[in-house]
Design the sequence.
């Protein structure tokens, strides 16, 4: 391996010896490693292993996306989502629909804890099927919708003809795995909680948020077999099938909402009915043809304001939230009066140019790091991390990163070691399937961020391994543990 060794060599010898031992495992026989460790105070490279070669970054791409949106919109930016009506008569009857003008708020009050803080868990529901379950936040996903409706009631609204979701802020994009839309309720997920019953009986299913927009078909049988559940959908009928192990705990899974505006409209209609507001329409498709060109002369009857963007970015980086990261591109586009993710990437390009990033050292086509076309060098990641240290947004950016052994996607990466609590880094993964070999293939496992070693001198690092065969989820987690061990090596030897 090509290496750049500085100083007296002793720390480097120690790291390299441990690094060579770890990377010589059989599983890495045909894998590619890249590592750069940089001292921002002396501006010197401490370790250089293929730092100028392109690697698949996975979700470390979100470092670039979140840095860009913090620069473009500012950490204190808040999303304001208003509701409008044309007129209200003395009896509280609205002549026409109520319009909810979506602002692109990725949470809509659903995770708000108060005091400008939002909640997240280390096992987020956006990864429920990957993880084999999830931990749900305690906050009501309908908190924002209910707040809007309560305000409408207090403004005297008692009856409306319809509900229209104005989702025209930017272009709605179907990415197959999920839909990027200006309206987001509960991360555009339907939480599905399955509890085992008696032997041979159906399990019990609950959904969150509760809605009659979807019909749930329960085909989950309780038995002694290991839990194995699948969720499929045909239109608005969601089938939950398989088996759940007798005596096991509740399993939390999800169904992805592919019609965000229709879903939000249904939830708002149901909330209005609960709050005593009559709606003269049914839970059908969002009538987009009724969206006005502007709201001049209309009455604002309600609005909700989000927690600051700093909290939103923290959620995205801590749990590696793909929908939110992709939404950032569209939000950056909308901030310039544009509408597409491409436009958002052009804004991001401008931000990266301001930071002095070598754009020839990276290739980005999305915000989350999903496609294999995303590539960048360890040096490019280090350049970004270094440049952000000189920005006023740095502390917010830094605080958004998972902390080794403490929270987010690094909470369980390593069981013990002195580096716990001293590594602040974004994780990245991308796993595919090798049909010929009938096995999984981790196209990447990555980790990039900051280390505060025992010396007290903060370091920057970017670490990648590409193309590692994996058999199951445990193997993928083991790769993450190995990368965490490398960060622990750096902590101990520097």
Sequence:
């Amino acid at each position: 391996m090509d290496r750049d060794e500085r100083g007296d060599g002793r720390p480097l010898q120690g790291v390299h010896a441990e690094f060579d031992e770890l990377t010589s495992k059989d599983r890495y026989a045909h894998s590619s490693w890249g590592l750069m460790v940089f001292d921002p105070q002396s501006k010197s490279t401490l370790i250089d292993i293929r730092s100028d070669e392109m690697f698949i970054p996975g979700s470390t791409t979100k470092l670039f996306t979140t840095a860009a949106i913090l620069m473009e919109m500012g950490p204190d930016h808040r999303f304001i989502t208003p509701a409008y009506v044309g007129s209200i008569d003395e009896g509280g009857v609205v002549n026409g629909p109520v319009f909810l003008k979506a602002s692109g708020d990725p949470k809509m009050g659903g995770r708000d804890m108060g005091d400008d803080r939002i909640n997240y868990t280390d096992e987020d529901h956006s990864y429920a099927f990957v993880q084999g379950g999830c931990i749900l936040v305690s906050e009501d996903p309908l908190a924002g919708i209910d707040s809007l409706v309560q305000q409408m009631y207090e403004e005297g609204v008692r009856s409306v003809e319809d509900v229209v979701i104005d989702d025209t802020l930017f272009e709605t994009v179907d990415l197959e795995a999920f839909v990027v839309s200006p309206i987001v309720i509960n991360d555009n997920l339907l939480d599905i909680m399955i509890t085992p019953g008696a032997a041979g009986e159906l399990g019990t299913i609950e959904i969150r948020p509760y809605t009659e927009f979807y019909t749930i078909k329960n085909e989950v049988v309780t038995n002694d077999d290991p839990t194995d559940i699948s969720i499929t959908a045909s239109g608005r009928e969601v089938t939950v099938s398989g088996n759940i192990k007798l005596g096991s705990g509740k399993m939390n899974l999800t169904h992805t909402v592919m019609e965000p505006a229709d879903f939000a409209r249904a939830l708002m209609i149901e909330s209005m009915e609960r709050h005593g507001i009559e709606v003269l329409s049914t839970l059908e498709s969002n009538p987009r043809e009724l969206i006005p060109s502007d709201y001049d002369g209309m009455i604002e009857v309600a609005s909700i304001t989000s927690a600051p963007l700093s909290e939103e970015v923290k959620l995205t980086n801590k749990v590696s939230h793909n929908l939110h990261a992709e939404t950032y591109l569209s939000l950056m586009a909308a901030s310039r009066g544009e509408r597409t993710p491409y436009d958002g990437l052009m804004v991001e390009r401008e931000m990266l140019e301001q930071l002095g990033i070598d754009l020839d050292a990276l290739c980005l086509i999305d915000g989350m790091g999903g496609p294999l076309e995303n590539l960048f060098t360890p040096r490019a990641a280090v350049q970004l991390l270094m440049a952000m240290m000189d920005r006023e947004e740095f502390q917010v950016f830094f605080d958004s990163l998972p902390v080794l052994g403490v929270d987010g996607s690094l909470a369980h990466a390593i069981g013990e070691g002195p580096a716990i609590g001293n590594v602040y880094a974004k994780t990245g993964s991308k796993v595919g399937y090798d049909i010929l070999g009938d096995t999984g293939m981790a196209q990447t496992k990555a980790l990039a961020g900051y280390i505060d070693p025992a010396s007290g001198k903060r370091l920057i690092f970017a670490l990648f391994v590409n193309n590692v065969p994996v058999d199951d989820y445990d193997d993928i987690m083991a790769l993450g543990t190995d990368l965490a061990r490398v960060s622990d090596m750096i902590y101990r030897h520097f």
Notes: Residues 473-493 form the longest helix (21 residues). Residues 429 and 445 are 5 Å apart (CA to CA). Residues 1-8 have pLDDT under 50 and may be disordered. The radius of gyration is 24 Å.
